[in-house]
Amino acid sequence: MRVSIITVSYNSAETIERTIDSVRSQTWSDIQHIVIDGGSTDGTPQIIERYRDSIKNYLSEPDNGIYDAMNKGMDLADGDIICFLNADDFYASPEIISNVVASMKQANCEALIGDVAFFKKNNPDRDIRRYKSSRFTPEKLSWGWMPAHPGLFLRSDVVQRVGRFKTDYQIAADFEYIIRVFHKTNITFVHIPDILVRMQTGGVSTNGLKSKIILNREVMRACKENNLNTSILKIFSKYPVKLTEYII
Q1: Number of domains in the chain
Q2: What is the pLDDT of residues 216-230, one digit of tens each?
Q3: Which of 94, 15, 7, 6 is nearest to 47 (CA)?
Q4: Left if phi > 0, otherwise alpha if psi is -120 to 50, otherwise beta: which for 184?
Q5: What is the CATH number for 25?
Q6: Which of 15, 40, 112, 205 counts the highest number of beta carbons within 10 A?
Q7: What is the pTM of this model?
Q8: Is 191 a residue whose pLDDT tops 90?
Q9: What is the DSSP code (8-state) at residue 13?
Q10: Above 80 in pLDDT, residue 203?
């Protein structure tokens, strides 16, 4: 089975080499690594060029934001399984993709979700939070719960059914996309209780109060657009639970 890993980047010179290395180190042999760069000016394209032997598809041009870039990556993906790995993030071990493929084969499922660990910019070896996708069920979408997107692996036929990310969302297009994946469908999925991806804090969805306000507005909008009965109180109710994810 071929696995398509899509990485989108913009001015990611400080981190993208680590991301590419984590894909190159995977023990699974049939990987299509797709890198979509938004026209970086900080040396990112030069770093990517050094690894062109392992990057199957590379595109560098201006885009209309992260979700437009992710759509471009999906258009190029030809794998049986499709996933995303951000340019600030990396796989937790070289066996991650092999384990994902084996688990999806064994469960004969259409999707797999796993956990994601967060770390601060200058300390990638110390986890400060574990995003536990085990808490997710499709019934919790209206409460704002979703599996960690970097820990989500989808069969290509699911991706074809669901379509593209909505580019008029600033932060929560991945949540809206996941609603379309799991809501009112009989999609089969499995959770593996492992950290699959280590994710750097400071991204657009974790960057301060303003981002949280935009995020929750868009979560409300996504629910309403997909006929999920929600409220701001339901959305906010998840935050006390999320505090338990932090590692002291």
Answers
A1: 1
A2: 999 999 999 999 999
A3: 15
A4: left
A5: 3.90.550.10
A6: 112
A7: 0.94
A8: yes
A9: T
A10: no
